[in-house]
Amino acid sequence: MKKIVLAYSGGLDTTAIIPWLKENQDCEVVAVCVDVGQEADWKAIKQRALDTGAASCVVVDAKKEYVEEYVWPALKAGALYEDKYLLGTSTARPLIAKILVDTARKEKAQAIAHGATGKGNDQVRFDLGIIAFAPDLEIIAPWRTWRLKSREDEIRYLQRRKLPVPMKKRDSYSRDDNLWHVSHEGLELEDPSSEPDLKRMLKMTVLPEKAPNKPEYVEIDFEKGIPAAVNGKALDGVTLIKTLNQIGGAHGIGITDLVENRVVGMKSRGIYETPGGSILYYAHQELEHICLDRQSYAFKQQAALKMGELIYGGLWFTPLREALSAFVDSTQKTVSGKVRLKLYKGGISSAGASSPYSLYNANLASFTTGDLYNHADAKGFIRLYGLPVLVRSLLKMSGKAAPEKDAAKPKKAPVEAAGKGRAGTARGAKPKA
Question: Which residues are catalytic?
Fold first, then answer.
């Protein structure tokens, strides 16, 4: 019998996929749950997979690998997608694809299935991740082939077979959660003009207006761009993110409403909760401001933009992403120190940063003249720095510069010859007597 490994989350899509695969593929289904920090009752999810028809269910704890090999590289790069999205789902999918391939090899499976829709980004991320390690395996994505058209159809599909439905219809947001974030799509979010029902929706974060009326200060230590401690206490990556999620979530930090451009070309709207991640991105950038020179910082901004595009588009396992990560790691050699932040009602502000590698020099920056800076040197610098401006200005004064606008009047377009009527007469002309 054909054996198929299924990326199983225990949600509505993958719960419906198990019986569909058995009915349409005549196969044995091995459900694989990858634990990247999502809030999940793995015992219950494993039992649900078996009750729905899976031959077996495997839970792989990948939290440590996820943080160290995927989240930290994105953080060090400062990678964002379209200025807002901290790539929570995007960073997890390549790792899940890699684990699916590993499991498929162990199980001697012939195919890998996933629950990504034919409109979404995850189909790209899963497919490319699988192809990167197992181009020989068949990839099955039921949403691209089955007749079910909506989440309501999936619910009815399970109900007709008297199988457990893992959600209520009124709360049928399409969600993805892990250690880094929670994403929400669907329902009222499909109308960009509507205000999201955050009170009903949020899982990790309180509403900013419900946050404490007193700000909280948090101090984060970094070592070569990697967070190492919170408020003076050294923590491993998984615990550190969980700690900041609790602190940030209590203050309404990290709620993002974004209408984004999907890989497949359409726009979609999502609400993202990333409390700990938002704190870390802010703190990391504050430290880079004092530790990186101007040219390195400026070029790293360009690298961050490209890195965000690659990660979002499922191109993690590519030479360019690896090369960009190597560049980023080089810049992070001096990004070590402490950052203090103030959290209040959904907002983050800086309360100071320090580093043994800080390039800030009070002797140079202070309004009090120090030994390292001579104000008189500025005149020669400005003269040379602005030399192109000076040359252009002199040329304009001499009258030889090109005019700002072409003052000549445009020539009239030639009038096309009138069409010929009967007997060779022009249309509209009276015929000769």
Answer: 13, 93, 122, 174
